[in-house]
Amino acid sequence: MYKYEMHLHTADVSPCAQATPEQVVNAYCEKGYTGVNVTNHWSREVLHYMNVEGFNLQERADFFMNGYLKMKEAAEGKLSVFCGVEVQIDQPAYCEFLIYNIDRDFILDLGMSFYKLTQEELTRIAHDHGCLIYQSHPFRDGLTILPTDIFRHVDEAMSRDKVDGIEAINYSHGDHYTDDMALNWAKEHDLRTITGSDYHGEWNNPWGGIYTEKPINSQSELIDVLNNKQYALSLPDGPVAGVSEMHPKYRFTSIKR
Amino acid sequence: MYKYDLHALTSDFTYSGRSSISAEETVVAHIEAGYSGIVLTNPWGNKVFSDEQHAGKSMRTLGEEFISAYEKLRSVAGNDLVVLLGAEMSVPSASGEFLIYGLTPKFILEYDRTISDAMWFTDFITNLHSSGDILVYQAVPFANGSVIIDLNGKDKHPLRTIDGLEVYNHCKADVCSNPFAQARAEYYGVGGISGSDLSHSGENVGGGIITKSPILSNDDLLTVLKSRDYSICKGEEV
Q1: Pick from A239, A194, A210: nearest CA to A3
Q2: Cβ contact A144–B177 (<8 Å)
Q3: Given Cys at both, which of A246, B39, B56, B71 links B86, Cβ 3.0 to 4.6 Å?
Q4: Which residues on chain A are in Cβ contact (under 8 Å) with B177?
Q5: Which candidate from A141, A148, A257 shows the least CB-CB separation from B148?
Q6: Helix (H) / strand (E) containing B135
Q7: Given B142, B148, B179, which is nearest A256 (Cβ)?
């Protein structure tokens, strides 16, 4: 099995993170990961706290991509590194989305006021760039329930307008019930899921992500794996052995009918 | 046994599209379904204040109309149904609605939206709890657009968080994921209430709470809710 982190922040871009690329490499190699998706924040907070508000669009894109490039350099020969992002938008409500297979052009296309994009606009931009988009930690306190019809169902082909799934487990929460709720929500509404560590620093324990039976050698292969459901979720008990499709094993079953 | 609907509306005070059912229809529907009483939870808050049909009205006028709708329902119900005053409140600081019990006309008539609208949500809840014997439950907590409330008590202050969740909403059962609300309320040990959310003609009445003793006043209602000495009615069982 090969394991890939789906939610990771580094201090070069994310103001809330303390993880350096070197720390990330050490932590994830120790835990047996094959690769990571660097999904640094792209939000008002980044612009403000990382002092890039005054940057023009090209400079902002360079700033963001620098985080990925530094990670890639530090991980050379040790971990595969893929470029993703966690974008925060205000419409329909404050929410965040993990987007995979991004590049500099994607950041440019988001524009200067990316946080004003609607969820539909963000989803279309992501899909037009060949990315996939998942809602981060959908049941975190303070977030708003999004309509389930904006999400793609498990067996549904990719749609330009639909969010590809949710992050059912976010291991930085420490709240198993919230994750349980998200897993059950996904089951109830037939949604696709991923999990992630939401790694920010040494206080986080790398555990989240996906398992695959074959190594992922490129970002486009990652997209194929996710689209074709050729992965298992990294759950609290570990991988679901032998599972090649997305049939999450639920650790908690608190939702009674 | 006695059955009470904790979430019902009439068209006498509403905002565009929220409710169209008359007081008379509401009373008939509840009597036929075997209810002992209703808590009228007409909307109150920014969804009302920003609605076109209320444009230009003073807060006093709005408050008087809100109370008038309650008094009308009481009058129509006569001795056939107990009618208590509640509200389905909306505030800018948290999307969704909140069911308020223990409400008094004085609270509504003295409501200062400039203060409430400017508050953080936890401060708003604290303010509600501090203003009288009031309980606050999140309506349809798993419906589209409902905010996820911190029930973990991170602030460790009982006034700063809501008292529970609406764990069964009858009229919106197909879109509000009632079982999730119930599971969440049970997990965090908060109260769960139920109601029909009867808002339009043709909807069926269902849901509510079932008690061993009659509820005749706000005090009775709050005592029952705080003691959790009731069972949840799901569906249309009598």
Answers
A1: A210
A2: no
A3: B39
A4: 185, 188
A5: A141
A6: strand B135-138
A7: B179
Closest CA to B81 of B40, B121, B30, B122: B30
Three-state DSSP at A22 gives: helix
**Which residues pair with residue B40 across a beta bridge?**
B8, B85
User: How far, in Å, are A143, A178, B185, B191 from residue B157 at the CA level?
Assistant: 21, 21, 18, 16
Q: What is the pTM of this model?
A: 0.90
- Selecting from A93, A140, A148 the residue whose C-beta is nearest the C-beta of B95 gives A93
Q: Is residue A251 part of a domain?
A: no
B-chain CB neighbours of A175 within 8 Å are: 152
In chain B, the domains with their CATH numbers are: 2-233 (3.20.20.140)
Tell me the count of A-B CB pairs closer than 8 A. 55
A212 part of a folded domain: yes
CATH number of A125's domain: 3.20.20.140
Range of the domain at A130: 2-239
Q: Could you tell me the two tokens for A32? A: 């047996």
What string of pLDDT tens digits covers the 257 residues of chain A?
A: 899 999 999 999 999 999 999 999 999 999 999 999 999 999 999 999 999 999 999 999 999 999 999 999 999 999 999 999 999 998 878 899 999 999 999 999 999 999 999 999 999 999 999 999 999 999 988 889 999 999 999 999 999 999 999 999 898 866 667 777 888 899 889 999 999 999 999 988 898 999 999 999 999 999 999 999 999 888 876 554 333 233 333 333 333 33
The number of domains in chain A is 1
Task: Please enumerate in sequence order all residues whose Cβ is within 8 A of that of A48, keeping only pairs 6 or more positions apart, or say none.
Answer: none
Q: Which residues contact B99 (CB under 8 A, 6 or more apart)?
A: B6, B7, B41, B86, B87, B88, B89, B136, B137, B138, B139, B166, B193, B195
Q: How far is A93 from chain B (nearest CA, A)?
A: 8
